[in-house]
Amino acid sequence: MFKILAQINKLILPSFTKQRLDLAKSKKWQMAIIGYRYFVTTRALG
C-alpha cells in the first residue's frame, strides 16, 4: 500500500529538493508535505 502511495506522491506532489527550498524558510504547508512524503517513503522502504 505504501509503495503505491509513494509512486503517487512522486507524480503529484512537488519536489522541494529540486526547487532548492531552504527548510529554515519554508512555510507550514510545505513542511507538512515534506513530512508526509518522508513518512510514506520510509514505510514503503521498510
Structure description:
The chain has 46 residues and is an all-alpha fold. It has one domain. 63% of the residues lie in helices and 0% in strands. The protein has helices spanning 2-12, 28-45. α1 packs antiparallel against α2. The model has no long low-confidence stretch (mean pLDDT 88).
- Secondary-structure element sequence? HH
Structure summary, number of beta strands: 0
Biggest sheet features: none
Mean pLDDT: 88
Low-confidence stretches: none
The shape, in one word, is elongated
Structural class, please? mainly alpha
Distance between the termini: 12 Å
- Helical segment count: 2
Protein name: SsrA-binding protein
What's the layout of helices and strands?
Layout: H1 2-12, H2 28-45
Helix pairs in contact: 1-2
